[in-house]
Amino acid sequence: MLSKKTKYGIKALTYLARRENNEPVQIAEIAKNEHISIKFLESILLLLRNSGFLGAKKGKGGGYYLIKEPKDISMAKVYRILEGPIALLPCASHNFYEKCDDCDDETTCAARRLMTEVRDNTLKILESNSLADIAF
């Protein structure tokens, strides 16, 4: 199941992408319009800023803004930043692979085969969608 952190991160990014200009938006405005706790949103936006998706301006007229065009923000990258691995099992992950302790043979493991297919299809969908695709 998708975490609230990822859901709210996507909502905040789409809110920023839908702005006609790319002027900074205060956290309180995003939180109010997207029904997200300010405290929780602060941590999410900081993570997105540190990951290179957002910029921030302090002071009057300050807030967060996109530093990349929405078409250049891959939802697969956003998902990995906010949620972690796309695979549901560590043995089916490309970037976070770990052998399962209870598995004798990965090549014959039915759970791994199924979860690899789920990962591949999920990855295909996330990689084929940018922030622009989902925001407009």
Secondary structure layout:
Elements: H1 4-17, H2 27-34, H3 38-50, E1 54-57, E2 63-66, H4 75-82, H5 110-127, H6 131-135
Antiparallel strand pairs: 1-2
Description:
With 136 residues, the protein is mainly alpha-helical. It folds into two domains: 63 residues, Winged helix-like DNA-binding domain superfamily/Winged helix DNA-binding domain (Arc Repressor Mutant, subunit A, Orthogonal Bundle); 56 residues, no CATH class. The chain is built from six helices and two strands; from the N terminus they run αααββααα. Strands 1-2 form a two-stranded antiparallel sheet. Helix 2 packs across helix 3. The chain is elongated and about 60 Å long. The two termini are 25 Å apart.
Order of helices and strands: HHHEEHHH
Major beta-sheet overview: 2 strands, antiparallel
The CATH superfamily of the largest domain is Winged helix-like DNA-binding domain superfamily/Winged helix DNA-binding domain
How many discrete domains? 2
- Give the number of helices: 6
**Total strand segments:** 2
Quick rundown:
With about 140 residues, the protein is mainly alpha-helical. The protein has six helices and two strands, in the order αααββααα. Strand 1 and strand 2 (about 65) form a beta hairpin.
List keywords for this structure.
mainly alpha, Tscrpt_reg_Rrf2, 136 residues, 2 domains, Transcriptional regulator, 6 helices, elongated, two-stranded antiparallel sheet, 2 strands, Arc Repressor Mutant, subunit A
